Each structure stands twice: as C-alpha cells, then as structure tokens.
Amino acid sequence: MIVRMHFRNPVRLIALLLLLGASVAFFCLGAGVWASSLLASRRIDESFVTIALPKAIELDREEQEWGVSYTERDGISPELVSALEGMTGGPVKRVYRQSFINACSPAFTALTRIPQGGYSTESAQDGGVFVIEIESVAKAPEDDPEGGGAAVRANVLETLAAHPDLGAITKANVTFDCPFPGGAEKLKALGLESGRRLIIRAVAVSNMDLFLKNNISSILGIDVNEVDLSKISFDLPEGALDGMIAAHTPEDRLPAAIYPDGKGGGLYLTRSDLDSIGAYELIVLDYYGLYCNQQAPQFKPDENGGLILDTEAPMTTGRSPLADRVLPAFAEEITGDTEEFLKTHPDWAEAVREIEVRAGSVSVIGTDRLEAVYAFQSGEARMIQGRSMTADEYAGGAKVCVISEALAQKSGLAVGDAVELKPYWGTVKDIFRADLSLTGLRTQPYSGAVGFDGEPVRFEIIGLYRLDDLWKEGQYAFTANTVFVPGSAQFREPFTCNDGLFLSVVLENGAEDEFRKALSERGFPENSFVCFDGGYSGIAKSVSGMALGARRLFAISTAVLFAALAVYIALFVSRRAKELGLMRSLGASDSGSLGRAFIFCLLPAAASSVLGAASGAALVSEAEKRLSAGFGALPEAVSGSSPAFCAAAGAAALALFAAAVGITLLLMGRASPAKLIKRG
Amino acid sequence: MALLKAEELCYHYRTKAQTVRAVDGVSLELERGGFYALTGRSGSGKSTLLSLLAGLETPMSGRITVNGIELKRDVLTLYRRNTASVIFQSFNLFPLMTVKENCMYPLLLQKRSERDAERIACGMLEKVGLDGTYFKRLPAQLSGGEQQRAAIARTLAAGTELVFADEPTGNLDPKTGGQIISLLRSVSHDEKRCVLVVTHDLSIADAADAVFRMSGGRLEE
Ligand SMILES: Nc1ncnc2c1ncn2[C@@H]1O[C@H](COP(=O)(O)OP(=O)(O)OP(=O)(O)O)[C@@H](O)[C@H]1O
Ligand SMILES: [Mg+2]
User: Fold this and answer.
1) pLDDT at A62
2) How far apart are CA A582 and CA A563, in angstroms?
3) Cys-Cys with A372: which of A128, A297, A504, B131 at CB 3.0–4.6 Å?
4) Ligand 2: distance of its center to the CA of A674 in Å?
5) Would you say the CB of residue B177 lies under 6 angstroms from ligand 1?
6) Which of A168, A162, A167 is nearest to A125 (CA)?
7) Three-state secondary structure call for residue A521
C-alpha cells in the first residue's frame, strides 16, 4: 500500500531517487576509492621492503712492535642489536638475522665459473685427483733457486676426480710447490723424470685451452665460442721476427704461429701459447706441514676507506693451523692398478672423495625473511618459480629451501624435489668472516681432513630464484650456488655472529631518516648502516598523492550526501506534517502514525541506497582500473573488496537517512494534530 | 447527562509579538441527537474551539468531559478514533490515497475488516453524491466540491457519536450544500449522533437545534 502510494506521484519519486541515488552513488564512489586507496597504499607498502644493512666491518688500529696491525671489530655489537630490536614499532619493523654454512649434496652439480681471461673455477669446486705420466720435465727441483718448486709436462692417464665442467683432461702442465723447509728434498724424492707415473692432488685446475681462446677472443674482439684453434697457421709472414731481439727473448716467447683475423692480419702466438692448446694447468701444492702467516689474513685500509689484504704483513713462523685440516695426499708414484692403490692408501681415497664432494658444494643461508636479504630486496635476485618461505615455515624451521634457477637446471632439479644437504666447515671456519667480508657469501671448499659437521638433512625445494649476476662479488653478494632455508631450520652450528653480514634490519618504508635519528639518539653512529628502499621513495609521493586525492574525493562526496539529505528532509520529509496530523485526527496513535510516515519517507531512500551502492560499486571498479593502471598488477586484492566497501557505504548512507528521517518526524510529531494539519 | 460538556475552555496562541486569546473561557454542552451551529466573525475562535472539542488540541485550561469521561492525553487517540471526527474547513484528504482508501482509513483504524470498511465507505460516498466512478480517483483528480464531499464522507463513515464540521459547505454550490446539511441533520436526528457545524450560512443556523455565537474567543449569550 505504502509502496503503491509512491508510484501515484511518479515525478516526485523519480526526483527523489535521482537526488538520493546519485548522492549515494557518489558517496559510495568516494568511500570506495578512499578505501581502495588505503588498501592499495598498504599493498604498495607491503610490496616494498626497506632494509638497512650494516656497513663494512670496522677496524681496530693497534701499534705493534713490528708496525701497525688492523684487526676487525664487529660492526654490530650486542648492544646495537638490542637497540635495533628496541626500535621495533618505530622506524624498525623487524631485525632479521641470517646464518651461513657450507653443505654438499650428491643431488647438486655446483655451478662453476671460468671467467673471461681467468684461470680457475670457484675455489669450492676447484681441484682434482689425477694419474699422470710425465712427458718432459720443464723445471727440475734442482733448477729452482729458492727450492721447493718444479714443473713438468704430462699426459693425464686418469681423472680420478674433478668437477665435470673441467671436461676431458688429457694433457697438462703440472706445477709442484713444496714451500716448507725440506720441500726441495721431498720433491726430489718424487723422482720427476719422463715416463714416470704419478698420482697427484691438484689444488687448482685451469683450462689453458679456454684461457687461450679467451685471450684470442678479447684481443681480436670476437666471441669466445667462435675462436677455432684449427685456424692457427704456422706460416709466419716474412719478417715476422724482424725487430725481435732474438738473443734476448726466450724462445718460448717468440712468435711461432699466427691466428688469422680474417682481414689479412692476425695474432701472433708463442710456443707457450701453442702449448696451451688442449692443455690444462694443474697446481700441486703441499699444504702439509706448511708454515705460514699464523694470523692469516691481515688487512689494511685502502685509499677508498675499504680494506685490502696486507701482503707485506710480517710472517710469523710456526705451523699453520691450516696444515692439520688438509689431507697429506700431495703427489706420489703410482704403479699397478689404481683401484688397488686407492684401497691401500686411505688418504688418496679420501682425496678423491673430497673432490667428489666439492662438485656438489653450495652455500646454505638461513634467513628469517628472504625478502630482507639485500639482493632480493634490491631486485637483483627474485623468485621466478614456486614460492618463498611462509611465516609458519620461518617460525617452525620447516625443511624447505629455495635454490637458484641456474643450479636447478644444472643439477636437473625442479620445485618439489628433495635434496639431502650435508653440512661442513672445511678448513676455514675461524678465519671465515674475513673471507666473507671480502668476497661475499662464497662457498668454502670441503676438506676431507675435517669432514662433515653434523648429520645430513633433507630439504624440499619449494621455489627457484633468478640472480642477475651469478658471480657478483662484494659485501652482501652471494652466488647462484646458494640455497636459502628458514633460519630456524639451519644445521647444528651455522656461522652466525653479530657481524653485519648476517643482519638485515627491515625498516618501515620511508623511515630512513627517522632510523638514523634513532641510532644517533641511542649513541650509535648514524651512518653505520646503508639503507635500501627498493625504489619506494620514488613512488612514495604518488602513493601519498593518491591517498590525498582519494581523501578529498571522499570529503566532497560526504558533503554532497549531506546536501542531498538536507534537500530530502526539507522538501520531502518535513512536508509530511499534514498527513501526520490527518492520520492522528482520524484516530491513528502517535507511534502508529509516526511509523507509517517513517516507512513512507524511508522507502525511496532505501531504494536509492541500494541503487546508489550498486552504481557506486560499478564506478569504483572503473576508477580502480584507472588507478591500477599506474601500479601494474597490484590492486587485484584491492578491487576484490570494493563491492563490500560500497555495500558498507550504502548501508551507512541509509542509516544516516533513517536517523535523519526518524529525528525529523519525532520532532515534528510533538505538535498537536490541529497544528500539524494547519502546517501543511 | 450531556454527551459533551466543556467548562471554561481557554486556548491562547502565543506569538513573539502578542498573545491571541483565541478561545477564552468557553463553556457549552452538546446533547446526543443535537444539531448545533457555531457562528461568529472571522477570527472569533470557531476553528480553535472546534479543535479543542474534537481533541486535536489540548486546552490550556478548562476541561471537556465526554460521556462523563474527562478528555485527557491518554484517551485522546481513542477519542479521535471512535468518538469524535472532524470535517475540516479546507478539505484534507490524503493526496496519495484514492477516494475510497481515504474513506476506509478511519474505519481500518477502528479495526474493522477490510470488507466492512469498504462497504461502509462506498455507501457513505454514494450518500454524498460520489458514485463508483470516483472511488479509484486520487484527490487531485476531483473538483474542490467533490473533494469536500469525499472528506465529509470519510468523517461520517467513521460513525462517531460526535461530528464536528468546519464550514463544510463553503466550497459547495447551494444545492449540494443543502443536501450535505440535510445529510448532517439526519445524522444527528435519525442516528442520534451529535453534529456541530461552524458556519456563516444563516440558513444552516436557522435549521440548527441551537446556535452558539462566538466573538473574541467567547460565546455570546
Ligand atoms: N497559529 C496561530 N498563531 C497565532 N494566532 C493564531 C493562530 N491560529 C489562529 N490564530 C488567531 O486565533 C484567532 C482565532 O482563530 P480561528 O482560526 O479559531 O478563527 P475562526 O473563527 O475559525 O476564523 P475563520 O472564520 O476565519 O475561520 C484568530 O484571531 C487568529 O488570528
Ligand atoms: Mg475557522
């Protein structure tokens, strides 16, 4: 009945619906855009991680009898760590620690690097055990004035262990180094002479062939894969040796062949260059009993305020603590069957195993938050498949890991596979930090003499990351041979300390200045941290601009809603006086007449709120599309909730209408029926 | 006992500038079956007195007793619903209800069934000269006189003992006016209801059982 009555005055009904509906729609638009701008800026905030990393380790300068020594001091003291933790809730969101250990897995084939113009693979994957037959002696032990050195040319009869990336090794230049007292005698005892068979343990294996190709490619400016050594010509052009003072140039440095550049010229190659073709260089170093600088390594500041190795620091005599951590296997004559030999020589069997382990050696970094690791925060590393660790996994120490795409490809692994990681420390745990400071989080070589450090642990691969530069060096850098696991899932004794390398402070976005202020207020140098915001400051302005615009829109739409409400009350609701009076004059009770008038008045408002909220939602999703265009894929989660916002805004508008109508009618209804009728 | 007894009724309109003593100590008695006329100059307080008697306004002093029961706040709604009804000076129909719905409204308030209400309403509309063709029209679709007749029908249909009419024939042609007056008279005389008509029409006053004259808020003797 009451609904029908509205339709008896369609013009007024439409006017009301338009007035109220449009204002509600606008209000919903304002509220929706405001809400989604809040959500969007929260999402944007969440998608940026601002981290602060401690700067390089500090040095303590000390006067010694022999000069000045510099020793490292923790950049991060326990006091600073607790101060940082005390800043949480302020500029600091959380302090995350990382930890480090080496591990190997038979499932991994570690990535190797043979850099342009370089010699060696990554040290953790370097080395090999070979059986060689000496072809010729290039430098006899007797010829070494300092003693302890020798060199031979040899055919490689068997590769007992080496990283598969080194390829098939058939020919090698082998350098022996026995730098400790009595080393020369040890070398002589080997009886280096042509035809002799030796088993050797090389600490470094270099592909000279590749080195030569790299040389040719860089000098002639061609791609290394296009260098074809079969093009080498021994027909030296007329007068090639002219101007060379043959008498003063060793024979192996004189041009012996030419690599043509295809333009009539070419690159002269010497005899030693030619020797590199198909050859490897093996360095056989006898660590055992090695005397060295006991306080290895010493550092001094460079001109940029950084650190460099102090090669001139005086050696102190004494046996290196390293010596005990290296297998005594060095070089030995081998006759008869190799397998038999290994059975009767456990050190050599262990040496073979050591190299096999190294082929699957990786770094394991335990973290409380992958995104707070510098490379991930800066975008140099990013997840490309699977997922990162969840909060529950971080907290519970789940046995899950994230590995690099490159390592996965090389090892034939995929997300969902499991790998068994055997932790180890190799030879260097106590001098490890120094190493890390200089080169980044590099995997350390496994030592068969030290063995493993704890039980193997199975991890499931849950995601793959991609690294822009697989071999980046320097602070905070890690290689693609790095496995990330939840910090609490780490092994028995991971390397973690207050060293800044293992600390990421996650800041509130945009709170860098506040953070520095908080540091200095607590008595710490404010520049002891480097902050990285991943580009947040760049878009912070547009985020806050968006929020401001949305807030203004909301304010305006609220004002419009109230204006419409005022018109509705003044021109419609308050005109119900006469009807109210009439109803009462005919015997309607106060409450009955008020109720009827209330329903009558509110019906168009309710319809308008529903229609307005619906069209408001449509407007908001349109607005969001525009809004999101600027921020890529971000607001998917944002727009999903906008219908709810609009429904809430519509409900709020309706509640406002109801309250206003109710109050108006109650105030009006206080008058007597006679006055009410007269008022109409 | 009188059906309605008013004693020393006063009602003042207070404006900022002055106080208008619209009703100033009026006492009167109305009997069942009586047909009364209330006359007086414009502004003499007739409509105000009518509002007081009909329970649309509460007197500032004095009292009204109907059937021996004093009209107080708590009985007003039921008084208006069941005992007294008003025909207004300017017709006051609900603009968005049809003629029939308007007439049915007080009956429905009296908790009569829809059917009863419809029957009574239609009967009364026909009595005032509005046949079935008018039932479904909205007030705006009627002439002024037709609206007045619909309003009269609505009041009479309620069947209350007391009927107050404020210049009911002002908008009617003399013939229809005459018919309405005789209808009101028969309501009082035949149905033993009490009708009080405010009027300037001397012919109506002549037909009345008694005439109250008002002047300056008081009844003249
Ligand atoms: N709301 C009001 N405020 C102030 N004065 C009022 C108000 N209503 C009526 N009056 C005054 O009260 C007096 C009585 O008014 P009332 O309407 O009762 O007169 P009436 O006799 O019915 O006149 P008419 O014959 O013109 O209808 C008048 O003088 C009028 O000016
Ligand atoms: Mg009057």
Assistant:
1) 66
2) 30
3) A504
4) 12
5) no
6) A162
7) helix
Amino acid identity at A49: V
* pLDDT digits 0-9 by tens, A120-176: 556 778 889 999 999 999 888 888 777 788 999 999 999 999 988 887 888 898 999
Task: Give the residue whose CA is nearest to atom 2 of ligand 1.
Answer: B13
Compute the residue count for chain B: 221
Phi, psi of A139 (to 5 degrees): -145, 115
> What pLDDT score was predicted for residue A633?
46
Token pair 């106060």 in the structure block, residue:
A590
Q: Please, which residues have CB within 8 angstroms of residue B39's CB and are 6 or more apart in sequence?
A: B46, B198, B199, B200, B205, B211, B212, B213, B214
Residues of B in contact with A679 (CB under 8 A): none
Contacts of B54 in chain A (CB under 8 A): 585
Using CA atoms of B207, B211, B217, B220 in order, give the dihedral in degrees to the nearest 10: 140
Averaged pLDDT, B18-29: 92
B140-168 mean pLDDT:
91
Q: How far apart are CA A506 and CA A485, in angstroms?
A: 19
Residue B41 CA to residue B52 CA, distance in Å, equals 19
Lowest mean per-residue pLDDT among A148-162, A232-246, A468-482: A232-246
Mean pLDDT of all residues in A92-98: 83
Copy the structure tokens of residue A532: 């990285």
Q: Is there a contact between B92 and A590 if contact means CB atoms under 8 Å apart?
A: no
Output the six-digit token pair for A402: 């994230």
Confidence of residue A71 (pLDDT cuts 50, 70, 90): low
Q: CA A544, CA A479: separation in Å to the nearest integer?
A: 37
The total number of residues written for chain A in this structure: 680
Q: How far apart are CA A172 and CA A475, in angstroms?
A: 36
Q: Which residue of B has its CA nearest to A591?
A: B77
Task: Check pocket membership of B159 for ligand 1, CB cut-off 6 A.
Answer: no
The answer to whether B19 and B13 have CB atoms below 8 angstroms apart is yes
Tell me how many residue pairs between chain A and chain B have CB atoms under 8 A apart. Answer: 60
The pairing of strands A171-177 and A279-285 is parallel
Mean pLDDT of A632-643: 56
Nearest to A144 by CA among A188, A203, A109: A188
Q: Report the alpha-carbon distance of residue B112 to residue A654 in Å, rounded.
A: 35
The partner residues of A149 in beta bridges, in order of sequence, read: A177
Q: Which two tokens mark B168?
A: 């009911």
- Protein residue whose Cα sits closest to atom 4 of ligand 1: B13
Tokens of A178: 């026995």
Taking the C-alpha atoms of residue A515 and residue B210, their distance in angstroms, rounded to an integer, is 98
pLDDT tens digits, one per residue of B88-138:
877 689 999 999 999 999 999 999 999 999 999 999 999 888 999 999 999
The rounded distance, in Å, linking the Cα atoms of B123 and B120 is 5
If you average pLDDT over each of A29-33, A604-608, B168-172, which comes out highest? Answer: A604-608
For the whole model, what pTM was predicted? 0.61
* Tokens, residue A376: 């991930």
| A81 vs A461, higher pLDDT | A461
The tokens for B27 are 């006492």
Question: How close is the nearest chain A Cα to the Cα of B104, in Å?
Answer: 11
For the segment A381-398, the average pLDDT, to the nearest whole number, is 92
| A618-630 average pLDDT score | 73
- From residue A441, give the alpha-carbon distance in Å to each of A26, A192, A317, A363, A435: 56, 40, 30, 7, 9
Cα atoms in the Cβ-side hemisphere of radius 13 Å centred on A393: 20
| φ/ψ of residue A203, rounded to 5 | -85, -20
